[in-house]
From TrEMBL:
InterPro entries: ACT-like_dom_sf, ACT_dom, Chor_mutase/pphenate_deHydtase, Preph_deHydtase, Preph_deHydtase_CS. The keyword Amino-acid biosynthesis applies. Pathway: Amino-acid biosynthesis; L-phenylalanine biosynthesis; phenylpyruvate from prephenate: step 1/1. One of its GO terms (molecular function) is prephenate dehydratase activity. This is Prephenate dehydratase. The keyword Transferase does not apply. Residues 193-270 form the ACT domain. Residues 3-179 form the Prephenate dehydratase domain. One of its GO terms (biological process) is L-phenylalanine biosynthetic process. Gene3D superfamilies: 3.30.70.260, Periplasmic binding protein-like II (3.40.190.10). It comes from Umezawaea tangerina. It catalyses: prephenate + H(+) = 3-phenylpyruvate + CO2 + H2O. One of its GO terms (cellular component) is cytoplasm. The record marks T172 as: Essential for prephenate dehydratase activity.
């Protein structure tokens, strides 16, 4: 039985995403209260893998995941999953007045307008996850929880509202992470993630982007977070389309490595929702192979 850590407790969106990675009878899901704890479990070998949220289409990156991936022992993503996000507002069966509403900060941000309209006098309180909010409501600590709809199956609460979302088609992306090892095979519709710290030099970010553009590589995300060292020093998180096994991507990663003080590979894995690839690619993988062969033959003295 292989153990998969997930950001819990039971009833989080992350648990739903993790269920999609489970092979029946072979894998067991193990909840952890925070993202760093779930990632520590896989780093320490307590579990084989960990499933955590990485970005939301409304609120953006999940900072706890970004920081935990850039620091500590390296982990690599081997799969991703994208879930549609709509919430239920859960209360105890006998609740009549809602004075406090608890949830994960990302969830509260995605129902801000709904709360202003339907529970304008309630105070919003942050909890570690949406399901942790349901647990706290069950214990009587808060009056309502903004939770994943599945939370009602785990906690004895009542649905005050369901299908709640300020943005109708909001989505959250989750990663399945393992300790470094064999990479997933390229599928032709993959994503590669990395985090880099650039040298302190004028134009260095433009150089990184140019390296990708020159090779016809599509950037799907670039995000900065402070290194927490000097003020003004940032890390860049980069997601691009393609697999490191592809010549164009390998070549681009080597170029980024040359421009950066530090580069950490965070995995090449199949896209959950394959992007429609653009037609305007500067050179194909075959062109990269042919060009490398040409340079090799020139080096060997062939009159190429
Ligand atoms: O608290 C949960 O249920 C989570 O899985 C976390 C999380 C997030 O980090 O964004 C996942 C999806 C929703 O966007 C709200 C919360």
């Amino acid at each position: 039985m292989s153990r998969i850590a997930y950001f819990g407790p039971q009833g989080t969106f992350t648990e739903q995403a993790a269920l999609g990675f489970v092979h029946a009878g072979r894998d067991e899901l193990v909840p952890f209260a925070t993202v760093p704890q779930a990632l520590a479990a896989v780093r320490e070998g307590d579990t084989e893998a960990a499933c955590v949220p990485v970005e939301n289409s409304v609120e953006g990156a999940v900072p706890a995941t970004m920081d935990a991936l850039a620091e500590g022992e390296p982990l690599v993503a081997v799969a991703e999953s994208v879930l549609a996000v709509r919430f239920s507002v859960l209360v105890r069966p006998d609740t009549e007045v809602v004075r406090t509403v608890a949830s994960h900060p990302h969830a509260l941000a995605q129902v801000r307008h709904w709360l202003a309209e339907h529970l304008p006098d309630a105070t919003a309180v942050s909890t570690t996850s949406t399901a942790a909010a349901a647990v706290a409501v069950q214990r009587g600590e808060f009056d309502a929880a903004v939770s994943a709809p599945v939370a009602i199956n785990h906690y004895p609460l009542r649905e005050l509202a369901t299908g709640v979302a300020d943005v109708a088609d909001a989505k959250t992306r989750f990663l399945l992470l393992r300790r470094p090892g064999a990479l997933p095979e390229p599928t032709g519709a993959d994503r590669t993630s990395l985090v880099v710290t650039t040298a302190d030099r004028v134009g260095v970010l433009a150089e990184l982007l140019t390296e990708l553009a020159l090779r016809g590589i599509s950037l799907t995300r670039i995000e900065s977070r402070p290194t927490k060292g000097r003020l003004g020093e940032y890390r860049f998180y980069i997601d691009l389309l393609g697999h490191v096994a592809e010549p164009r991507v390998g070549d681009a990663l080597a170029a980024l490595h040359r421009h950066c003080r530090q580069a950490r590979f965070l995995g090449s894995y199949p896209q959950a929702e394959p992007a429609v690839s653009g037609d305007l690619v500067a050179a194909s993988n075959e062109d990269f192979i042919a060009a490398a062969d040409w340079v090799a033959s020139v080096r060997q003295g062939a009159g190429a």
